[in-house]
Amino acid sequence: xxxxxxxxxxxxxxxxxxRENVKQYFDEVVHPFFPNCNYVNCTDTLRSGxxxxxxxxxxxxxxxxxxxxxxxxxxxxxxxxxxxxxxSCLNIIxxxxxxxxxxxxxxxxxxxxxxxxxxxxxxxxxxxxxxKDNVYSLxxxxxxxxxxxxxxxxxxxxxxxGTGIGIVLEIDDDNRETWYNRYLSEIYYDSTKIxxxxxxxxxxxxxxxxxxxxxxxxxxxxxxxxxxxxxxYSSEKEVRYLEFDKCDCSAQDDLALQHxxxxxxxxxxxxxxxxxxxxxxxxxxxxxxxxxxxxxxxxNSGKEVKFKRLGITSTYQEELIKDIKCPFLxxxxxxxxxxxxxxxxxxxxxxxxxxxxxxxxxxxxxxxKHLGYNIEVEVSTIKEYFKQ
Length: 388
Prior knowledge:
Elements: H1 3-30, E1 39-43, E2 45-47, E3 50-52, E4 55-60, E5 79-84, H2 86-95, E6 97-102, H3 113-119, H4 125-132, E7 135-142, H5 144-147, H6 152-157, E8 165-171, E9 182-186, H7 192-208, E10 212-215, H8 216-224, E11 238-244, H9 251-262, E12 270-272, H10 277-287, E13 295-298, E14 304-311, H11 314-321, H12 327-336, E15 340-347, H13 353-370, E16 376-379
Parallel strand pairs: 4-10, 15-16
Antiparallel strand pairs: 1-4, 2-3, 3-12, 5-7, 5-8, 6-7, 6-14, 7-11, 8-15, 9-11, 13-14
Helix pairs in contact: 1-7, 2-13
């Protein structure tokens, strides 16, 4: 057998071993928690130009259906309420969209860090900060919170101490399974559910020792840490919509992060065949990105904040995605983005009758002008406790 034949035979043996290990990995690690999550590609290439010495890189299709029947697929009513100030509500209507702020733009320093630090040993604050820049969030509550008159904390904290607005929104269920890198889940106020999944993943890889499995599943677990917050926030009763942009990091940073996400204490063995190919591969990926435009603003402290938009009219949603240069998206755009609309506006419990009349008139005029349809306006259910 000459060297070429030997290399071919060795490559075939490695492929067989990889398939067996990856099948076992999904049977034992992934499917008990995510029964609909399956890989579409298994290769020995981490990125173009970077190869794994002995192991497999897994690619997933990042659609919402992969989370179906898991802890992170919302199964309740498709009606939610977003508490905000009157000024912010007027801006949402005029801009025909909700602003989704990156996790780095939020005041809560525990975002992502709480669950990821507890579970991915060795992940650094700078890596968490980098990752949070690519996660965009809209916070809501189940509508039952308002209907059952248990919304006092939400009005006080987010609804301008009872003088703001509760925006009732409906998210169409028809295409929710095919959202692309977009997910909806309740928030869990501990890290138990994600801990067991990461521990199963880490234990499997440590038992395999020299065989490494890296790629999208580890990144998915890291992203799902965003659905966990410390118990001190449990009164928020939050449901969260998240958009994950694919991180394009340098080769060195990517390898360091992949090492941490494996949970394996042994260093990963990579061979860099072409140092230039990694950058070339990232530039090619960005051309086919399904990420909408990022915008910047200033918060009250004068700090730059990043946000994306979630359109609340079909016309404006078209506007948001028209510049994304991806033929696949434009063919299937009706399946990949949420369809969302405002169905009702609820005025805070601290407004008097005169204010309620004036606010109602302005809200109805603006929604008809900017959104193109009439929206019901009413007063919070808890106002009866604050009647003078």
